[in-house]
Amino acid sequence: MRTSDFNYYLPEELIAQTPLKNRQESRLMVLSRQEGTIYHEHFYDIKKYLKKGDCLVLNNTRVLPARLYGIRSDTGAVVEFVLLKQKAENVWECLAGPGKKAKAGHSFEFSDKLTAVVTEVLENGNRILEFKVQGEFFAVLDEIGQMPLPPYIKEKLEDKERYQTVYSKELGSAAAPTAGLHFTNDLLDEIRAMGVKTAFVTLHVGLGTFRPVKVDDVTQHKMHSEFYAVSKETADIINETKQNGGRIICVGTTSCRTVESVFLKYGKMTECSGDTDIFIYPGFEFKCMDGLITNFHLPESTLIMLVSAFAGKDNIMQAYKCAVEEKYRFFSFGDAMLII
Asked: Rounded to the nearest 10 degrees, how much is the dihedral formed by the CA atoms of 254, 185, 296, 265?
């Protein structure tokens, strides 16, 4: 299986640069994985495809405003940092650019409340920063940090909350679980009123989600690791839904990777937390998920490989060709797909 098998043609103008004014008015492509049939809807029509006894699994992670610009104390050089993972209190692993201006021992000022020193340069080029903060770190970060938007988004985001789901709660992601961006609280209330359950997992999305696959043989790709957590309440809801014959419909590839990681490890949903580097590509046997709500993904990415594993590669490539022809909006702020 070659990485190039998952390539497709995408005109640049179809890459969505800004979110729609109303979240639920995105377009929705509905793909039947059994029949390969495609229907064109709007996201608020998703209720037509859900039924009593189903369960939506949503990732309640919240994106850190993790992009910071620091001024080096000795030279005045400006360096961009992106917080990746908290290592200890006020100690973070970060991306840095340009890296040559952020070596071990260099100190930076981000605001009158926040400074940092580079304490280590890792083998992968990431930096360890030790911050000094006046006040509470995350409150200061919320004041001065910017959203770490994907590199294909060039427009400035006017409202930081538009890169958060309406149910975001657990702070820790470097990128949004974008399939969930289409839901409004009203739409979720309407769905619950139909007898559809909602269950929340947490998977903190890393920037590795945008990392290209650089090997020709898909099976040789090494996935990045991400933290996940599942509560007892969520485990009980998912297990009961499965036992009662309901469908588990994951909102986003992150929710999918969480439930499949747990099922792979324990054979059922259970209260747990840990790190997962699960890599789902064609040939994978799904043990939990019955349906998937997702956005349209980058060519040759691990995410298009995941949806191909679930829906069939031929179905996905045909659906993406159709999406281009119908001028769907692609990627993080783009339109959605329901695979059932």
From this structure: 20
CA 306 to chain centre: 13
Question: HEC profile for 217-276?
Answer: EHHHCCCCCEEEEECHHHHHHHHHHHHCCCCEEEECHHHHHHHHHHHHHHCCCCCEEEEE
Average pLDDT estimate for 122-131: 95
Is residue 53 within 8 Å of residue 244, measured between CB atoms? yes
Helix (H) or strand (E) holding 305: helix 302-311
**Cβ–Cβ < 8 Å for 1, 308:** no
| φ/ψ of residue 247, rounded to 5 | -95, 140
pLDDT tens track for 175-208: 999 999 999 999 999 999 999 999 999 999 987 7
Q: What pLDDT does 206 receive?
A: 86
Per-residue pLDDT tens over the stretch 278-301? 999 999 999 999 999 999 999 999
Q: How far apart are CA 207 and CA 320, in angstroms?
A: 24
CB-neighbour burial class of residue 305 (10 A; exposed 0-12, middle 13-18, buried 19+): buried
Cα separation, 296 vs 303, whole angstroms: 9
Question: Which pairing describes strands 226-230 and 272-276: parallel, antiparallel, or unpaired?
Answer: antiparallel
Contact present, 5 and 308 (Cβ < 8 Å): no
Domains and CATH numbers, the chain: 3-63+159-339 (3.40.1780.10), 67-144 (2.40.10.240)
Query: What backbone phi and psi angles, to 5 degrees, belong to 203?
Result: -135, 120
Of 61, 31, 48, 53, residue with least CA distance to 291: 31
Q: If you search the block for the tokens 């659906």, which residue do you land on?
A: 319
Percent of the chain with pLDDT strictly greater than 90:
95
